[in-house]
Structure formats: C-alpha cells, structure tokens
Amino acid sequence: NNDWEKAIIFYRRCVELNPNSAWFHHSLGVAMAQTGCLYEAITCYRKAFSLQPHISEFHLNLGISLWQKELEQEAIEYLDTAIKFNPKSATAYQNLGEIFLKQQKWDEAIVAYENAFRLKPDLLKQHFNKSQMPK
Questions:
Q1: Is 26 helix (H, G, I), strand (E, B) or coil?
Q2: Rounded to an integer, what distance in angstroms lies between the CA atom of residue 123 and that of residue 95?
Q3: What are the per-10-residue average pLDDT scores of the chain (135 residues)?
Q4: Which of 2, 44, 108, 135 could lock 29 by a disulfide, CB 3.0 to 4.6 Å apart?
C-alpha cells in the first residue's frame, strides 16, 4: 500500500521478534529508504548481508542507498558484488552507469548502460523522456 511508516513499525517489530532474519532487516531497510532515512536503511542493509552475505538484493539496495548518499566508491563496490551474485541485475548495471556518468568515466558508463539495456530493454524507455527519444 506504500504506507512506509506503517511498514517501518511492522518490520521493527519483526526484527525485535526475529533479529536473525536477514529478510526482516532488509525489508526494514527498504521501508527506511522509501521514507528518505538513508543512513538507517544502510544500517539495515548491512545487517541483512552480515546475516546472509550472498543475497544479491541486499548488496544492490545497499549500493543504491550509498549512491544516493553520494558515497560513490563504496556504492560501486556493493553494486559490483550484487552483479557478481546476480549477473542479470539490470538495475545494478544501470546504477553503476549513473555513477560512472557522474564521475565522467565514459567507457565504464557505456559498458554498464549497455549491459543494463541488453538485460532489460525497457530501461532505455524509462531512462529517457519520450520528448528526448528519437521519433
């Protein structure tokens, strides 16, 4: 329902009841990120992957939150790890492309975007406004 405040309350309680559930920590992190509480989200994601280090989604969401906090180098490391665990993660490649673009690392950005768009062609449409798309 996109009621992230209620979700935070719910997942905090879940974490209290089962502190060893990586997925509860991760879900709390997602809810925190949705409300703009990125530092709290990062803490939750770190806890999640400390419990289950081989879950691509944990690394992906941590990388995205780090990127949103402009911690680019650390974000790259986690996005690379997400790709290692799930080479078909178009979202990880897309976020890497955005970081490399900001850093003006053109070759790396092109490779990352090519991988993202190859895996999920619809990302190309989402990436550009229709007014920018060639007719």
A1: helix
A2: 11
A3: 89 96 97 95 96 95 95 96 96 96 95 94 67 43
A4: 44
